[in-house]
Amino acid sequence: QVQLVESGGGLVQPGGSLTLSCRTSGFDFSETAMSWYRQTPGKGRELVAEVSKWSSRTNYEDSAKGRFTISRDNGLKTVTLQMNNLKPEDTAVYYCNRAFALSLGGIGGIWGQGTQVTVST
């Protein structure tokens, strides 16, 4: 079955960096555009970044541009989000899933457990 396992979150000071990883299985990863999303209490999930099937295209939410980098490894079936110059407003639970999951639903009907990122002094 589909599995999405996010990791790499934690507590970091403003200006710091984190690298989030998502290990996947159970679907044709190399044929699936992937995205990172985040959710804060009281708000719905929002798109952070997306990467096309073969990494030819990436797209970022405005506040992530210039600070975050999404990448993928089709051989390892993983997708990574490198986050630099983190700000308190980046505090959220981060999830990976297929592109357009907010409208199409999570791949295989699921979302992973997410990984908590907290940016604070």
Structure described in brief:
Helix content is 3%, strand content 45%. With 121 residues, the protein is mainly β.
Describe the structure.
The protein has 121 residues and is mainly beta. The protein is 3% helix and 45% strand. It has one helix spanning 101-104; strands at residues 3-7, 10-12, 18-25, 34-39, 46-51, 58-60, 68-73, 78-83, 92-98, 115-119. The longest helix is centred in the last third of the chain and has 4 residues, at 101-104. The chain is globular. The model has no long low-confidence stretch (mean pLDDT 96).
Structural class: mainly beta
Q: How much helix, percentage-wise, in residues?
A: under 10%
Computed Rg: 13 Å
Write down the overall geometry.
Answer: globular
Low-confidence stretches: none
Secondary structure tally: strands: 10
The share of residues in extended strands comes to over 45%
State the end-to-end distance.
40 Å
Largest sheet: 6 strands, mixed
Quote the average pLDDT. 96
Order of strands in the sheet with the most strands? 2-10-9-4-5-6
Query: Tally the helices: what do you get?
Result: 1
Question: What's the order of the H and E elements?
Answer: EEEEEEEEEHE
